[in-house]
Amino acid sequence: MAEPLLQLEELTVHYPLRRGFLRRVVGAVRAVDGVSLELRRGETLGIVGETGCGKTTLGRAALRLVEPTSGRVRFDGTDLGAIGAAELRALRPRLQMIFQDPGASLNPRMTVGRAIAEPLEEHTGWPPARQAARVAELMEAVGLDRDLMGHYPAELSGGERQRVSIARALALEPALIVCDEPVAALDVSIRAQILALLEDLQARLGLSYLFISHDLGAVRHLADRVAVMYLGRIVELGPVDAAPAHPYTAALAASAPDPEDWRHPAPAEAPLSGDLPSPAAPPAGCAFASRCPEVMAACRVHAPALRAIAAGHRAACHLHDPEMRA
Amino acid sequence: MPDRGRPVLEVRGLEATLTGRSGARVQAVRGVDFAVASGECLGVVGESGSGKTVTLLALLGLLPETAHWSGEVRFEGRDLLALPDPVRRRARGAGLGVVFQEPLSALNPVFSIGYQMMEPMRAHLGLTRRAAAARAAELLELVGIPEPGARLGDFPHQFSGGQLQRITIAMALACDPRVLIADEPTTALDVTVQAQILALIRRLRAELGMAVIWVTHDLGVVATLADRVLVMYAGRVIEQATTAELLGDPQHPYTRGLLAAALAPRAPRPRRLRPIPGHPPAVAPARGCSFRPRCAEALAQCAAREPPRIVIGPRRDVACFWDPATGGARDG
Fold this sequence. Notes:
heterodimer, A: alpha/beta, Rossmann fold, eight-stranded mixed β-sheet, 10 helices, B: alpha/beta, four-stranded antiparallel β-sheet, globular
């Protein structure tokens, strides 16, 4: 098999927790806690979990926008932690990110044309005519009307703004795009347009996506494989159409509203109650034990390891460990 | 199911025109009628610019001074908008609970949660301080805030986003409203917290006979919560039906498009989404159907005039000339 485009090895990101007048470090928030995964070329890997599970930090660490506490990020064979600032800057064009709220990530005083040309000015040294031709090509590729070139972000709809930020991300022909909740803020009809656009661009340009979302529903339409995160760790990683193996994945799937739900009586209780435990003081044993509908005595003592349960499918749950079940 | 006969809240012929910063006038709501009975949940579906939020603000009497509106809002038989301001505020405060999408806009950062919950109870229900505090703690427990009594003295910044939204729902429920009006209160929350809130609302409807008007763009939320649904587009109701009719047999091409574009998290295999082309109009066109520029089924008459609301069943109507059963024009 070809070498994966992106490899995370035991990646850990801890944020210091400070207290008091002297802002002394009294502990650490374990945002990402020993995550290993691979993103293949041309693949979409979904990263799913609730607010606070570490998925956004993972996406940023994968692009080395935050410095990992330990562990390694390899992009296309290069260890991103072992190279200098100049080398990293040379790699930057190939590593891009799209955010949830394009209103906040676009400069309000820059026209659409300028916003898309900015990465070209910064990295290519192309003459203006060539840059303008590339901007026109990018606007066409993301389905933006050429007339919008002189408009400002405030004059655009949410969907159009997200198209502008996608065009910017594509400008330097990236290999990897980290998409952090790119459709969460959009209307239903526009959300489907943007997901279809991302899919179409991937097929045409051979892009690889890390697609981050709290909504398993959105991820399922785009991803090839899904990693489910809970309190900084991966609890399940498998193909998108495999049945959930971890009770947390099952609860996430059951929580997502589905237009077919009118056919069945609504459940009296939500699939999951309570909130995530504090990532500053993770519980002993399995982090999900406090909310798990299938919790066993062993779960509160031993943390389950991520283990293979089928080809290409791993889960960190004692339910899949014959010894623990006995 | 509770009594479905008499509506507790009824809106008739609501129109609202807003004036933008540039002075431009936008007709945001163009003739909206609906009614909701005790214990019933009405889903209002629409995207940006559909007029759904303006409809809610108009019926609450919360439109800005520069807005022009007309129509009737009958709450328990009284026309709310015809009442003098203080009387209307009292009726609204006691009878209607309101939750908006952004919890921080509904909470004052410098007052404790307990104070903000207790004030309306003392004003509208005449409770003593002690009784109001007990009730506030009870409500926080109801919406799933752990150790509610100990948290009454905490300030908004000491809670998570999901907890704050649950607190605003507890505040909306504080005065035993006859109608809970919610504008996308779960859109910004995790799906797990959303599922908790939806389960809570279903329970309260059944236990208290509260009527609910729930605005959302998510047909999945409608499927699990609403008895009936209005679909709004460009300031008008374009389809109205029971939830089962609307999701099982949608009639308007826009409703059908929303369903084809909706995420299906529990389908055995994810299908390809079919997006609706274009985007919702900021201003309704001067002539013809507002949805025509995005519609794959448009007929010749759709350009000439706006389709009227056509009654196609008991409490079911659709504003469209096209008939999905024949693929041609509707009879009549």
